[in-house]
Amino acid sequence: MRERYVIIPAGGTGTRMGAEVPKQILPLCGKPVLRHTVELFLGLPFKVNVIISINASIRGHWLDYCRKNDFIFPCVLVSGGITRFHSVRKAMKYLPDGALVAVHDGVRPLLRKDDVAALYAEAEEYPAVVPVIPVADSMRSVEESAGQDGIPVAITHVVDRSMYRLVQTPQIFHTEVLKKAYETAYSPDFTDDASVVEKNGIPLHFCRGSRFNIKLTTPEDMAVARAVMEAGLLT
User: Fold this and answer.
1) Are 212 and 110 in contact, with CB atoms under 8 Å apart?
2) Which of 68, 170, 78 is CA-nearest to residue 117?
3) pLDDT digits (tens, 9 = 90+) for 117-145
4) What is the dihedral of CA 210, 18, 193, 141, to 10 degrees?
5) Distances (CA, A) of 87 to 75, 103, 138, 181, 210
6) What is the pLDDT of residues 86-108, one digit of tens each?
7) Would the CA dihedral through 89, 94, 95, 101 be positive or negative?
8) Strand 4-10 relative to strand 100-103: parallel, antiparallel, unpaired?
């Protein structure tokens, strides 16, 4: 069995949340969001080496919180970069070859531990494992065009939703694959780690994701997260 790692990018500023502090340290059911996410990996039935790429503006706040609340665990803490791509790339030097590494958004705390363990197990065989879920809603492509008198109008077309998937994290890779992929130059086309690896010629293996596994981006997402946790739906 390969040694297991996780990189948790937590460098965002959370402007869409409308809060005074970045969303990863907002309280959720008595704990910061980031703590819930870290505990997800610390609670797995095997050891996971934790690397957190954190927003430099909250590094001190996070360390103070951990000390005051006795949340002490082995961890590598690196300062986040200007984009998610750069934040993850800064963590590459802490990864050995021959291991597995999950990359999981710091603001996705709504996962069952059994589901995460199953993804690691799948990654023993496949070099790039990506959780996805089918699209449930009707979908349309939308394009703006100049109408009469220069007033923009929307031209829309129904698209076949069966051809699309919503992509989640944790995405889990063989460390030698991810490290090599991140040697490439940054591109705005890199929306996640799977897109970086795929650009390097590695096929992706899709696994079933979870509809609970939302990325906490808006105040409405926080309300949903509280409801899910308080209802005990993740146990």
Assistant:
1) yes
2) 170
3) 999 999 999 999 999 999 999 999 998 87
4) 70
5) 16, 11, 34, 14, 25
6) 999 999 999 999 999 999 999 99
7) negative
8) parallel
